[in-house]
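Extended Data, panel c. Modelled sequence:
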Amino acid sequence: MQSKLTSTIARAALLAVAITPLAACGGGSKAGKDIAYVARDVESLYAAAQQRLDRGNTLQAAALFDEVERQHPYSPWARRAQLMSAFSYYIARDYNKAIQNAQRFLSIHPGNKDAPYAYYLIALSYYEQISDVNRDQKITEQAQTALREVNRRFPQSEYAADARLKLDLVADHLAGKEMEIGRHYQKMGLWLAADMRFRNVVEKFDTTSHAPEALYRLCESSLALGVPAEAVKYAAVLGANYPGNEWYERAYKLVGKHAEGVTVS
């Protein structure tokens, strides 16, 4: 899922670590170019890392921020460099390292004022890795967990506001996966397995865009399983909640054809 929030992230970094404006560019990083590390004072080393980041050389910047901590582990600059390293890896789309560095920051500085941003950066790093619905959804579930953690810990922050928006998109994605599996089971004639997947959508993801189709598919599976009363029930729920929806029109015709006269007890 390609990010469209680089400027938002840059602004968030400003709020979290009080740095100068960053170049909103993930490209241009020279991943294969090594930097000659020499001992130098912490201000010069941090400035060199910041310059690389401003120029869009994000992996070089991350490596130099790491070097700040290695050479000056007890300096106040080390804490800031840890988080800036995670941010640099995020912009470079090396999400695993971004997560590792942000988690390390939190393990060392759990109560730091920049902790909300570290949690947010972890959530974003998972979120950016969400794949299409035809693939395993482990990353999607990790993104959901991380986004919920941001919202739980810092509900009044701007990070939580963005996390809530993304949680809606993640739920829609997970519901889409359930629908894809359910339709596959239907094609194979595994109606009970399909029914369980569509029930998951209705029960767990009822606010997503997939809920109307899930109710229609439950009408189909109920008829296939020989319980027309259930099909009538699901059609009624469709009509009550999505009266003008195309899936209700289809359910109405399906029930009228195969369950005419059936009543729900």
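The chain has a mean pLDDT of 84. This feature is highlighted in the accompanying rendering.
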